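User: Okay, second chain of the day. Same drill as before: sequence in, structure tokens out.
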Amino acid sequence: MSGLCRGDRIAGAIFGTAVGDALGYPVEFSHGVTVTDLLPPHHYSDDTQMSIATVEGGLQTDPSPKKGLPRLEENIAAELAKWNESQDRPENRRAPGNTCLSSTARLRKGVTWRESGVYSAGCGTTMRMGILGLLLTEDEIIERGPGIAAMTHTDPRAIAGGVGSALTVKYISEDVENLEIIKKLTAVFSDGTHSGLQCPEMVRLLSRVEDSTGRDIGREAGTEWYLSPPAWIVDMLGEGWVADECLALALFLAFQAGDDFKAGVLSAANLDRSDKDSVGAVVGCMLGTRLGAEAIPEAWRNNIENGKLLDRVATDATAWRM
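Assistant: Same drill. Structure tokens below.
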């Protein structure tokens, strides 16, 4: 949405990630449960925890373009190692994935970020890297994103999911149209220009998203489609537990929601057979970027856990590279 300032988009992305995550987290493994509101105690999952850790690592890096973002990967790795340490406290453990735990445990033990990753296609990269799209340039995401992804997940699908998540947020912040976003992502992952980013699985899913963008779910399933999304979405794009599927589902749901933040994140929370909190976090990040924080229902912004922390990170991120 043109006219939004950078700070509006950053706050929208951060709070949107947390809210989308928190809506899906209590029902992640449930089926047939309709989510209409944020449920007490308004907790988000490891998805938001790791997103914040990734962002805070980035913010510790000298932002001067002339210096080439020295130690960007090292700083993010250090914050992910701290996140792993936080998981020693039961109150902080929010169903983290095995790959996220094992790779960050390696970072915590002193293994370098170049060697810490685990061969896994899990969606941990997609859910934690989106907000970087508001901090880094397109070229920086393409050049540095693979390393940031691979410090936890090294499968090409996971690398594509993380880089694609950040690029999508970058393009949304520049008001790129939906179909053009798909075309730009497809070019990145298919043409071989960018070393290490070719991913035929991602390209196939992006093609399916593109082919389905003309479908009007509201007309097919009713105006409250987001309370019971059609099963064919998961049949077409997958369940979202792996990174490329998570990005494809989030793109599709965000595009269908348009300017309705609530519809987008609720559609993820109600999408049975899917990784609801991770898809919701990515949808929330995308729509928060597009619409700004004011588009998120006030009660959700006020009640989400660690609101002061989220606000502080948004303020710091806005000031970085002013």
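The mean pLDDT is 96.

User: Thanks, on to the next one.
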